[in-house]
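Input.
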Amino acid sequence: PPINKMSSSRTSINEDPTDEIQDRCPLQAHEAAPLVPLLLPARPIYRYTVLFVACLFSIGTYFTSVAIGVVQTQVQDAFGITDELFELQYTLSSIPNIFVPFFGGFMLDKLGLLYGTVVACSVVFAGGLVMALSPYTHNFYTLILGRILFAMGSEVSYVAQNTICCLWFKDKGMALAMGLTVSAGRLGSFLAFSVTGWVAELFHDYRAAIWLGAIMAALSMVAAVCYFFLHKYALSVGHKFDPDSDPNAMNRISMKDVLTFPASFWLIVVLSMTFYNTIWPYEATGVAYLEKRYSLDQKLAGLLMSVIPFISLIFSPPFGLVVDRIGYRAILASVALFFLVISFACLLTTSIPLLYVSIGLMGIVSTAVPVAVWPAIPMIIPSENLGTAFGSISVANSIAATIVYYCKGRLVDGIVYLLGVSVFSFVTSIIWNILDARQGGLVNKRKKS
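Output.
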């Protein structure tokens, strides 16, 4: 049968001189492509190579984000600041990110996925470099400036990473792909919690730990360049992406489209806001919290905190496979969020055994919720509106982060506040399940992703 040519709106992902050849005879175009079969972009090994490179975005950004929190006590002593002022960096870096998804979507739309990703990860590195240089200026606001740059670049890189997953893995194990990106981020956090304290002690200088964060931020930039060439190569050999997965459409944010989204999507937004803004604040300041509440030394506190991302690192991919096979996404999210409530309740005591229970449960929750919830979004939102959907969630998360960090820094016991937020998240997931059941069980149906 005749092959219809791609519309001009698709040229951003399929632009290449071989397009015309492939339209006339797609089989010959691919047969005449690389001499080495493994280099065929349509093969799984190539797709997973792309995914591996995209995962490096998360490893670098998560490591850099966590590293400075591990040496929080030394940073506060060096700059002469309080806990409240230290957490100000997280509050202020969240405010620009309320607007960054709109700018980031526009940037990726105008520059294209390839150039936009490189620019975003370059900003990540620039922010990490400024943070590493801030101790030499003896000005805490230089550190805040670096944190803001880093956060802005990270936010756009996450949008790009989600787009890459949708582009290469739609209907080909997207939950597994997203599970692997979650594992990559958790690997970055695990390494930061495990290594940063030892590096600071080895060099007898907390600044060495922050410099290590800057080096890991550079890893994100290098990975973005690698993805640039992998994608370009795929185009050069005539690879055709799914026309319904146009990254320009997935990165484009439309306020008009927001009004058309179903109620189930907005419940996911609320769930995301409340879930991530319990896990993130706790991980950001968890080492200092364990040092003070449980009288642990920095290395042991960092080691215990590393268990949370380590569990996610190990179990996110297999859990993604399970979700792909059995479905029941909203139900699994509710079960996980119930355990999150128990986890924070355990932290209200000073019992070391209950601390271990809390850390183990938090690791399981931070594995299950993202892998269950994120693949549900393409199930209820059309491909052309995914950019608006992901952008809306990023904006909502940034608004919630600004509020949570501000309030937590001013409370005597921030854990009580986070416990309350986790309860709200669990209740939201129950409402999501009820609504999904009334709408025919689209999210909870047993179907391969």
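The chain has a mean pLDDT of 81.
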